[in-house]
């Protein structure tokens, strides 16, 4: 066992009552000593001079789609496209390198940022792509636009809910396309994507991630690809499979922490499929779609709890979240509060919770896995939430209210929905667009580190204290960033090294 001493650094332990710490020793993947006097740790095998640099616990991304993130890195990313015309131009440019039968898979478009929100049509995609099979996933993954050649491969799609003649698909129609997309993607595609995404995470100081896989996201083989690549890359993965009552799936899948993650209780705000208790401000008479009723969710929660699994759901709108709260109360009647609490069930997004729902989640220890960049991108009086909800945009992602109510929070990116950028995320959480909903720098950093470990059921990681996992990042700066500063550029910092359980998973060339 090698005993490594890191000295001459600024070590941000993440502990509330932190003594100044400049040195830390690691042995067998654990922190075995911390202090200020490096002579206090005797006979190390190896000494690393940190050169005054900052060391923090590595970030945990509590909601990520690894293969899709890799597709974004390696493939056609429409994230920055400022208009429908640019999307069509990007598709046209992209296909010049493709064979006539190759699938065009792209993602990230967001029409709410365009001057004219009219979507590209199937006919326009046919023209831009030279008649190829095209699938353009919306930024939220809850709707897509597709070409005629792709639709033609799914007999009966035109009769499914969520299909439109113009080529926009959502819900059942979207789901019907997923097996076809899996068939059309070339061998090794998922592995290549996973590898690229994991490298990107490690290079950003993210040492652990929660993969939100599921039958509505991609095939089981994608999850296996992520698990294999993560073991190889050395990042710590926690794996969720978002299948309703999908206990049989676990005969085939290993190392699944829960039937949770993107098991959708509703859709998204951008696609107007989040389930609301009131009409959308920009679509009178429409309240979105609740996909699961409370009884069916309660059955899922009870089944997961009995099997030692975490249960969880994707939920955005207040109606969906109220339905889930009701489901948890039904489960409490069946199992008791204490049994539910020990399982640390979790909700993804949980963007518009009512006070009553928050009270239920506090009572039953249900964790909210949230994404600060959702507010960063879509919050505020003149962006997408305001367009969909009117004045109620101010009730979205209420971090302060939830923490004050006693709800545990974990932060993530939902990448590729928002970029992998943990410093920007914690900055956004401090600078919430709704006055009064910002949280403190310490709370925000904790939610993106120890909060993520907690949400995965792991209690020996997330701070740099003796006995904890040696999972940390070294940064190209000498102080912990001032997260209260308005400009995010002053906060975002280059990562120099990422270490997981004592193993280096990323190191900037020539840093030591
Ligand atoms: Zn997701």
UniProtKB/TrEMBL annotation:
Amidohydrolase domain span: 46-506
InterPro entries the UniProt entry points to: Amidohydro_3, Metal-dep_hydrolase_composite, Metal_Hydrolase, YtcJ-like
Recorded GO MF terms: hydrolase activity, acting on carbon-nitrogen (but not peptide) bonds
Domain of life: Bacteria
Pfam families reported in the protein's UniProt record: Amidohydro_3
Record-linked PANTHER family: IMIDAZOLONEPROPIONASE, PROTEIN LONG AFTER FAR-RED 3
The protein, known as: Amidohydrolase 3 domain-containing protein
Organism of provenance: Nocardioides panzhihuensis
């Amino acid at each position: 066992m090698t005993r490594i001493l890191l000295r001459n650094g600024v070590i941000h332990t993440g502990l509330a009552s932190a003594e100044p710490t400049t040195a830390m020793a690691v042995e067998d993947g654990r922190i075995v000593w911390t202090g200020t006097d490096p002579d206090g740790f005797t006979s190390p095998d190896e000494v690393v001079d940190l050169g005054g640099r900052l060391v923090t616990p590595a970030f945990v991304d509590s909601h990520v789609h690894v293969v899709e993130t890799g597709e974004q890195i390696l493939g056609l990313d429409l994230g920055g496209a400022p208009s429908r015309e640019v999307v069509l131009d990007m598709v046209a440019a992209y296909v010049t390198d493709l064979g006539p039968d190759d699938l065009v898979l792209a993602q990230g478009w967001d029409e709410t940022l365009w001057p004219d929100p009219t979507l590209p049509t199937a006919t326009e995609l046919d023209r831009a792509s030279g008649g190829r099979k095209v699938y353009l996933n919306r930024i939220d993954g809850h709707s897509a636009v597709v070409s005629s050649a792709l639709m033609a491969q799914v007999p009966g799609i035109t009769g499914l809910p969520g299909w439109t003649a113009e080529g926009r698909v959502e819900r059942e129609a979207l789901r019907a396309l997923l097996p076809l997309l899996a068939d059309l993607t070339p061998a090794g595609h998922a592995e290549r994507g996973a590898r690229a995404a994991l490298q990107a995470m490690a290079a950003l100081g993210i040492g652990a991630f929660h993969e939100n896989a599921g039958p509505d996201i991609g095939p089981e083989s994608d999850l296996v690809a992520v698990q294999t690549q993560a073991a190889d890359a050395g990042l710590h993965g926690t794996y969720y499979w978002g299948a309703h009552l999908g206990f049989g799936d676990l005969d085939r899948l290993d190392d699944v922490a829960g039937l949770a993650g993107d098991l959708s209780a509703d859709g998204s705000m951008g696609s107007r499929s989040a389930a609301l208790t009131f009409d959308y401000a920009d679509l009178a008479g429409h309240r979105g779609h609740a996909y699961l009723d409370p009884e069916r969710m309660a059955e899922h929660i009870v089944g997961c709890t009995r099997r030692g699994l975490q249960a969880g759901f994707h939920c955005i709108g207040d109606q969906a979240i109220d339905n889930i709260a009701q489901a948890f109360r039904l489960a409490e009647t069946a199992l008791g509060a204490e049994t539910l609490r020990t399982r640390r069930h979790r909700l993804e997004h949980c963007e518009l919770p009512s006070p009553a729902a928050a009270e239920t989640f506090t009572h039953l220890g249900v964790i909210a896995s949230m994404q600060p960049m959702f507010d960063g991108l879509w919050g505020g009086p003149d962006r997408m939430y305001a367009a969909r909800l009117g004045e109620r945009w101010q009730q979205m992602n209420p971090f302060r209210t939830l923490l004050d109510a006693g709800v545990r929070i974990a932060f993530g990116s939902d990448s590729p929905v928002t970029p992998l950028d943990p410093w920007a995320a914690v900055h956004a959480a401090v600078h919430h667009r709704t006055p009064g909903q910002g949280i403190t720098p310490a709370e925000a950093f904790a939610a993106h580190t120890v909060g993520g470990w907690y949400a995965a059921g792991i209690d020996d990681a997330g701070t740099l204290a003796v006995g904890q996992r040696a999972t940390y990042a070294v940064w190209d700066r000498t102080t912990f960033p001032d997260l209260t500063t308005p400009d995010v550029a002053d906060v975002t910092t280059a990562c120099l090294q990422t270490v997981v359980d004592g193993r280096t998973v990323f190191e900037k060339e020539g840093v030591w």
